[in-house]
Task: structure prediction
Amino acid sequence: MKLIKGYPEYMWESIEKVEETREERLKSTIPRMSLEEREEILRKFHPDYKEGTKREVRIGPNKGDVFYNEIVDLLESKPLIDPDEIDLSSVDYDVDILIIGGGGAGTVAALWAYESGIPKDNILIVTKLRHGDSNSMMAQGGIQAADRPEDSPVIHFLDAYGGGHFTNKPELVKALVMDAPFIIKWHEELGVMYDRDENGEFIEISGGGTSRFRLHAAKDYTGMEIMRVLREKARNIGIPVLEFTSVIELLMDDRGRVAGGIAVNMETQEYIVIRAKATILATGGSGRLHLQNFPTTNHYGATGDGLVLAYRVGAKLRDLDAAQYHPTGAVYPEALVGLLCTEKLRGFGAVPVNKDGETFVHPLEPRDVESAAYIRECYERNKGVETPTGLRGIWLDTPMIEEIHGEGTIDRYFAAMKRQFGRFDIDISKQPILVFPTLHYQNGGVEIDEYAQTSVPGLFAAGEVTGGVHGKNRLMGNSLLDYNVFGRRAGIYAAKYVKKVKLGKLSLEHVRKYVKMLEEAGIKTDRKAPILLPDYRGKKALSRALDIF
Amino acid sequence: MKKEDVEEKAGTVEVFIMGKSYRVPANLTIMKAIEYAGYRFIRGCGCRAGFCGACSTVYRRENEQKLRFALACQKLVEDKMYLVQLPFVPADQAKYDLEKLKPDENVLLRVYPEIARCVACNTCTKTCPQDIEVMKVIQAAIRGDIKKCAELSFDCIQCGLCAMRCPADIKHYHVAQLARVLYGKHLMPKSKNLEKRIKEIEEGKFDEEIDRLIKLSKENKEEIVRMYKEREIEE
Result:
């Protein structure tokens, strides 16, 4: 296949149309949809509304609720361990606070637990990959905080609540927007290099569904910059981290409180007993479950483990019928399929355009609405561009960015994007990129209150694993904020909680009960969960693999 | 078109995973090719998108002497590639208390004295999968130019390949991290808007309005929907 500037020859007819209409596009935009129009397009085209993709939960605290099939599969799976084979009399780690997950939320929780007076050696982070491997690391666009005079936490509240279709838990939204400026201040003190003007004011842009310029960014490496600063701080303090170790079941005590977990060394498969007075769930999202076979922007370990762990101890979940499909995932080149093309590109003026060079939706609708519009354009109106592997996408006209903001803008603010496409000979400052919605974020999860407590004593949760903060749709820039706000709160309130806890006898009785509950509901399955890592082995190799070593 | 058909159409190449030959579809990244061959990653795989530095890979092409470097998730396989991944980098971050460090021109040398051993061989720069001018980062660090060190290194994903290749045992990515936090903390000008907003929140300026929204969300949803619809949008 002959490629010209990274694209197959046949795509150039369409690219030229995009170039022809650019001038006009720079002058006028398409109006935003009304709430009624939004609802209609969501109902018709958003993947959340597709039939046959969800079912009722048959057991546990959410019995009767409808969640995505893949999530219900997790909940209706057998445990990885047989409680009879685990020796709870020998405790390997005895700590005040166990933190499950070494991404953004877990690291922030550890730092604030330490700040709140818990000695470092009484904190333990357990993470299945390396410290910092997480979706937090991959966030590009930015973090919201209403700190400009034209803005206020009240407006931020309205944006987040309306963006979530008024289904968010309002107390959590309050915590999110009111803590936001303090989080940015804390980052400033830690040394995060946010983009600023010469006076020190942050360069803030707009995201989908936000009514003010509110996004703070560090180029398009915002998530990475924050994560590596947090990790450096945790390493300097010397907070213990067990890497390549997964918690596969929570422990309880005989009074029904969560009391640590059973972990497994991913490499030797040896199990480890961790007793903790409080446990913070910070396991992140579930993009690697590939809901409806969508590709995902998520990191390798995003398999929804926390949902299973929490459900087995009886914690309530919510909003797992709504997943976030990021409108602009790459669909070409093949090697980048599903990867995130930051919303910040649209924040800086890039507009989505169909194969004939026509604009068809305002570039900054909330993510679910924007995604639905791209799906409509490709599959109802047939105005998408087909890739050599049979996928369809629409153009995101990135060259508009430098037309608006001047040459060098892409280099300065979009180094990651430019590098990523540049590796495949596509210069995003000169050519548009081909995009389609990709599975991005778990909107719901384990329900928490404003103290980051779940419905089960001793179990706290923060970050993407939780539900309620964003309702059924999260706005851009509120996830980096979420993990900071609630990670911090989890650390602080868990530190408070442990001071008055005296644990009873450790128990895995809840696991036995769960297995019994599955049987009683007539659920017969060989599935086991948590699944820990996805399996991408080639079909041929996998079909001949013998389990002998 | 099915995924398998696509793979077949692209043809196959021969790669050597840790010396062992496998035939894999030509349009795969190194990471996906290793999986196609039947490996399941525990190490050597993280974000799969070029942001985390977990999958640094050393490779050599047949009939070449030169070792080359890439991220397995970002580089396509080529015929006759000899591949190995780097599962871990044994280079320690120095211990320091950022609160007590002053951003003076000797601070980087004090915390990481080994940077003075740099022989300017430029191997680090040639190794970097992000194309960062790593040697210039270290030269700036030696000169005490924290700003330059921070800015030049900003796109670093901390894969550690530079440190593994350095004949002087410099830990470039840790040095650069220190430069960046010193720059962010001490040398970047601070936002006055942020200070002002924090003061307003502490004084309770928004409490009443926010609590009203919470109340409306429970008692009068139509009103809050109206407020949302009518809110002004900054363009």
Q: What stands out?
A: Residues 3-49+324-439 of chain A form a domain with the Flavocytochrome C3; Chain A, domain 1 fold (CATH 3.90.700.10).
